[in-house]
Amino acid sequence: MTKMIGFIPCRAGSERVKHKNTRPFAGYENGLLELKLRQMQKVTGLDRIIVSSNDPLVLDYAARFAAEEDARVTPLPRPEEWGNSATSMGAFIADYIAHLSEDGDIFWTHVTHPFATAAVYQRALDAYHRIRAEGYDSLISATRLQKFLWRDGKPFNYDNTVERWPRSQDITPVYEINHAIYAMPFALMRETRDRIGHKPYFFEMEEAESMDIDWEEQFLLMDEIARARRQNGLSLL
């Protein structure tokens, strides 16, 4: 059976959210990284979970998690050339990530999506196996938007000459790539030099599942939401 390799990139030196990977979050002492590894730990069907980083704190925690919690976790030191803010994402994908394994498939996520739980990942992984059999070559997560979007001074996704304010559920949906999940064969990644194939399947996630952290204000807000959920007896895992 094809190897399925989880991949979690954790670059050091975030400028917008200081120490975002490992600073305490929602009661998890080792922060977003700990939460993400505990979520991924519950996913069946992953043969390895690579944590790629140039941050010693990330690598040390991943090594401890591998020794104490889940032997599938593999801390992988990242060369500095692939670990700074000037790194080209295209080159990072084509020249680094695509060569992490010569065979098998990648299942790529980020710690910055704290509400992408094990159930979401399991659903996505099961969908990936199904859609591959249906002829799709890759999976990418997306969030459906049915909102009043405008571009160049006029509506983008609805016709206000027909109805000025249609019901939001009647608006033609558009899909936002939310970066929570990418899945595809490593060989295809090397061929396309991209994280999306020739015939991708868009795996739909709810907004509440796909929220991500890009700014300090978002970190603080999601920390508050996550703490409230835990206090109400809801699991983040």
CATH-level-4 superfamily name: Spore Coat Polysaccharide Biosynthesis Protein SpsA, Chain A
* Tally of DSSP helical segments: 7
User: Pairing-aware structural class of the strands and helices?
Assistant: alpha/beta
**What is the highest CATH level, the class?**
Alpha Beta
Query: What is the 3D form?
Result: globular
Secondary-structure map with pairings?
Elements: E1 4-10, H1 31-41, E2 48-53, H2 56-68, E3 73-77, H3 89-95, E4 105-108, H4 118-133, E5 138-145, E6 150-151, E7 154-155, E8 174-185, H5 186-192, E9 200-205, H6 207-210, H7 216-231
Parallel strand pairs: 1-2, 1-4, 2-3, 5-9
Antiparallel strand pairs: 4-8, 5-8, 6-7
How would you describe this structure in keywords?
7-stranded mixed sheet; 22% strand; Spore Coat Polysaccharide Biosynthesis Protein SpsA, Chain A; two-stranded antiparallel ribbon; 237 residues; 31% helix; alpha/beta
